[in-house]
Write a structure and sequence with these properties.
Number of domains: 3
Strand order of the largest sheet: 6-9-10-22-21-20-17-11
Number of helices: 16
Largest sheet: 8 strands, mixed
Mean pLDDT: 94
Structural class: alpha+beta
Distance between the termini: 57 Å
Low-confidence stretches: none
CATH architecture of the largest domain: 2-Layer Sandwich
Strand content: 15-25%
Helix content: 25-40%
CATH class of the largest domain: Alpha Beta
């Protein structure tokens, strides 16, 4: 055998035992008469020692040819370590090496394989198999594994059945762009990779499988950033004979269980907020509520003092920052410049500082008295108020971005603190000025509240809900339409003719004729949930082999061109 123990296993109780270990050379320290080697595998690190007075000449000679990242096998006696290392689990012992065998040498790695590495992200992605040796990434992947196990265990106990759905499906016009797969057998026709198993899980409800779950790969051809990937993993769930309250209670229980079992954190009862209030008070449909700074609508109070910027604005909103009195003029200038950046797009930023002594300083104090400024903001001594005005939708979004940025700067987004809430009552439809038609805010299979479309489709609320944790959308779902006539009405509002609707979704509409039960569900982003639970924003480090911002796998150089014979076989010509 290559090993009797792994590199994270041996303890003080093993002293005197002869053992075999195998792993990678993490580090070598050579003091001439003493050589120490840190041997690493996925379980941990064990220190090896070669002593010129106690080790054989063969071992002493062999170790001279060993370098970092060599794969070696050693035999030796477990002895007590003189200088205890409390940072590792094996820190009380070391192995006095009696035999050493190089299983495979290594060339010098392109970056240091340490927690704090000198490799840039693109370089580390090119050599991802080396990057995954670093304990920080290894621990993330293992955490994701543990999280997945707990999901399956909890939902199995709740009676959910794990069912696989197809990857090669039909392309549909809603949502993000599909990834397309040509069919060789059916010339000129194409499959699409699923953005989610949405219609299949609804069909499973029609089939009578009243509790479905799948931890499933999904694919979306969309612009990328740190928290998006073209392929990602969902915890996909559906239930029959349920209303919104049933779904929220079931999956609130799941998330609370995951936080407790995986990171020993007790999540409080989830808050609930409507989409309208989330936008009005936080400027975001995924608000971070670990801190306050709730928006104030100042539109009525602030107008009428001949300050043209306010008087000509549709809306005026602000938020108070507790203990903001210490902000300097330099900081005011910084935040003003920050909101003017093209990514934010505000024309400017107004500030009002309510000092502890009762005095008031402001960038607009020549238009307002101290009492008027206090009245506008309803602030307390020591508070600072930031204000943005203009078009309502833009103002709320801009102020929402500023709120998060200020909280980051003030250290209010504590990664060890978690706050979860449900956002409900989303608009059912969004009007798109470019195409001059409505789009589904979630997807076209979402049921309206009370199963009824308002006379004005834009006023219709969806029976939909999102789970938000620490300002991150972790999952979303809805109660689905299960009635063919209502589904056809929704398709009509979205601009589908009856023929187009049946061409695209006839299989689902036909299924509704055979006794479809009321049903609803939710899907959580597994990658994002893992990252948020560990206090991180990016999902990349929780995916073994992610893509970069251009959607490329730089390790295997994909996507890539294919040869002419393959194209001919598929009857495809590159334009």
């Amino acid at each position: 055998m290559y090993r009797t123990h792994n590199c994270g296993e041996l303890r003080i109780s093993d002293i005197g035992n002869n053992v075999k270990l195998s792993g990678w050379v993490q580090k070598i320290r050579n003091k001439g008469f003493l050589v120490w080697i840190d041997l690493r595998d996925r379980y941990g690190i064990t220190q090896l020692i070669i002593n010129s007075e106690k080790s054989s000449k063969e071992v002493i000679d062999s170790v001279k040819n060993v370098g970092r990242e060599f794969v070696i096998q050693v035999e030796g006696e477990v002895i007590k370590r003189e200088a205890i290392n409390k940072n590792i689990s094996t820190g009380e012992i070391e192995i006095l090496v009696s035999k050493i065998n190089v299983l495979n040498p290594s060339i010098i790695p392109p970056f240091t394989i340490e927690d704090e590495t000198d490799g840039g992200e693109e370089l580390r992605m090119k050599y991802r198999y080396l990057d995954l040796r670093r304990s920080v990434l290894k621990d993330n992947i293992i955490f994701r594994n543990d999280l997945t196990f707990e999901v399956r265990k909890y939902l199995k106990a709740q009676g959910f059945i794990d069912i696989e759905t197809p990857y090669l499906i039909k392309s549909t016009p809603e949502g993000a762009r599909d990834f397309i797969v040509p069919s060789r057998i059916n010339s000129g026709e194409f499959y699409a990779l699923p953005q989610s198993p949405q219609t299949f899980k609804q069909l499973l409800m029609v089939s009578g499988f009243d509790k479905y779950v799948q931890i499933v790969r999904c694919f979306r051809d969309e612009d990328l950033r740190a928290d998006r990937q073209p392929e990602f993993t969902q915890i996909d769930c559906e239930m029959s004979f349920v209303d919104q309250e049933d779904v929220l209670n079931t999956f609130e229980g799941l998330i609370q269980s995951l936080f407790k079992s995986c990171i020993d954190f007790s999540l409080e009862k989830f808050d609930r907020i409507s989409y309208k209030d989330a936008m009005e008070f936080y400027g975001s449909d995924k608000p971070d509520t670990r801190f306050d700074m709730k928006f104030l609508n100042l539109s009525e109070k602030a107008k009428g003092n001949d300050f043209k910027i306010f008087d000509s604005s549709e809306s005026i909103y602000g938020f108070n920052i507790e203990n903001g009195e210490s902000f300097s003029r330099k900081e005011f200038d910084y935040y003003t410049d920050w909101v003017k950046r093209p990514q934010i797009g505000a024309l400017g930023l107004i500030w009002i500082k309510h000092n502890q002594d009762g005095s008031v300083k402001s960038s607009i104090d020549k238009f307002y008295s101290a009492d008027e400024l206090k009245s506008i903001t309803n602030s307390n001594p020591g508070d600072l108020t930031f204000i943005i005005s203009g078009d309502k939708k833009k103002t709320l979004t801009q102020l929402g971005a500023l709120r998060i940025h200020v909280a980051e700067k003030l250290g209010l987004r504590d990664k060890n603190k978690f706050k979860a809430l449900w956002v409900t009552d989303f608009p059912m439809f969004e009007w798109d000025e470019d195409s001059k038609r409505y789009h589904a805010m979630h997807h076209p299979f979402t049921s309206p509240v009370d199963n009824r479309i308002e006379k004005d489709p834009g006023a219709t609320l969806a029976n939909a809900y999102d789970l938000v944790i620490n300002g991150n959308e972790i999952g979303g779902g809805s109660i689905r339409i299960h009635d063919q006539k209502l589904q056809e009405e929704v398709f009509s509002i979205l601009g589908f003719s009856k023929k187009e609707a049946f061409d695209q979704f006839g299989f689902l509409l036909n299924a509704f004729n055979y006794g479809a039960p009321p049903h609803g569900g939710i899907a959580f982003g597994l990658d994002r949930l893992a990252a948020v639970m560990k206090g991180e924003e990016s999902i990349r480090d929780y995916i073994a082999f992610p893509k970069n911002n251009s959607g490329r796998d730089v390790m295997i150089d994909s996507p890539s061109s294919i040869d002419k014979d393959q194209l001919d076989d598929l009857n495809i010509k590159i334009k």
